[in-house]
Amino acid sequence: MHFKWNYEPPTSEQKKAAEELGAKLGISPVMAGILIRRNITTESAAKRFFRPQLNDLINPFLMKDMDVAVDRLNDAMGRKERIMVYGDYDVDGCTAVALVYKFLQQFYSNIDYYIPDRYDEGYGVSYKGINYAHETGVKLIIILDCGIKATEEIKYAKSLDIDFIICDHHVPDETMPPAVAILNPKRQDDSYPFKHLCGCGVGFKFMQAFAKNNGIPFSRLVPLLDFCAVSIAADIVPVVEENRILAYHGLKQLNQNPNIGLKAIIDICGLNGRTITMSDIVFKIGPRINASGRMENGRESVDLLVEKDLGSALKEAKHINEYNEQRKDIDKQMTEEANQIVAKIESQKRRSSIVLYDENWKKGIIGIVASRLTEIYFRPTIVMTREDDLATGSARSVTGFDVYSAIKSCRDLLINFGGHTYAAGLTLKWKDVPEFMRRFQKYVDEHIQPEQTEAMLNIDAVIDFKDITRKLHAEIKKFSPFGPKNPKPLFCTTDVYDFGTSKVVGREQEHIKLELVDSKSNNVMNGIAFGQSGSARYIKSKRSFDIAYTIEDNVFKHNGIQLQIEDIRPAEDEE
Fold this sequence. Notes:
Number of helices: 19
Largest sheet: 5 strands, parallel
Structural class: alpha/beta
Number of strands: 19
Low-confidence stretches: none
Helix content: 40-55%
Oligomer: single chain
Radius of gyration: 25 Å
Mean pLDDT: 92
């Protein structure tokens, strides 16, 4: 795939502002200019950005219902009631359950946790889960990363004398469930200043408020921040403001002294001895936590995350790793099948969305396939499978398009739906799938902007190879943790040439290992272009080209730097 490149050169005023800010901070004007592009324009804002402080976390009692939630939890403990911590079966839900359960277990023993079975119970609050809670004497359920739409289920729980505290971050309906307290910064009537917490983040805020109310030092919460970092990375929420603070200190915890379950996953991923980044969580740690919920039951992931013995944790991590290997095989097969369907739909080229369904696809994998298709075709995508007379679907979106609103526009056809801007789930009758497809695609056609269906690279700065120094690399690292709303800086260098030693590599000869020079210096830069072997012939032709890239560690050289090349295009004068 070739991208459209978006770059706005700085004005003379912006250049001057970057030089002044860079001088104050002791960083290059290039990186100061990138700060300004990200709306960090003052010395004090930059210092807060580079050194996020736990003291700057928002007062949790600013969240609506927080005082009610803390009072109800205190009452439950005072009356020695049985408490259940209930969560979704994905990474966000499992880490949220592990965090809340591990924290409360230090002060209270009459507590259990529960993860619904994706295949037997489906998403969110299940009647089976409520019945199990009733049978085991539970009086209070703390539900994490789901529950905001479970009106009927929570009414049923109330009839059994079970109270709910909801900790969710998905978009609520106009009418909310009859829970004792609903903690959700996306509530219309909530003035909490940061709206983009993940489910684990909401659970953390609840525990922060509980600790504050009971005189428990905040330091007791710090060892659990690694769960927050894992959920923020895996749930793809914006890594800004409060999420940035939680992710920054969570990564520190993950690298220095992770919880035993996470330590076992790190070991099984081969990440020992390396500095773990948000990218490692997204591609290695997160998929393994997700795998048990996708293939069997997410409870196994929570069992691992709350494990206290390293030997047992390593055994459980190996088991979860096996699930992940099975998941990869099914994922590959389903993605190939989905690609074949898309290729056969002649009208797809004109459509601004993709909706596919197959009754044999595995329910736990459809979300991954939707993500892959969104990346390949750059269209909002829904992938569905069949269960009896129902269709279950998973949706993913492209930058700037609200797929949740698109699904909501068809709500009269849906039995259930939920999610947020970029990811959502839905259930409807199998017979209604064709009508849903027609209406969803019509909504997308009418609301999406043409540029949202183009693969876009937003270039942060145009530089020469002589600008790429270890100092610049160190300054880039200060911008981490990276993620949505704070991507890794993307650079462009124009008029570069093959040094003569670039070659195609990889098991299927799909990548290019590059050695490049630019027209303004004699510096030779190493680079890797994953999946771009189609450009190899042009590169070897000795003509000049432009590259868009990030600057990375070269793992094969001490203190080395290499370019990870996102796209290659002929230089303007070569076109």
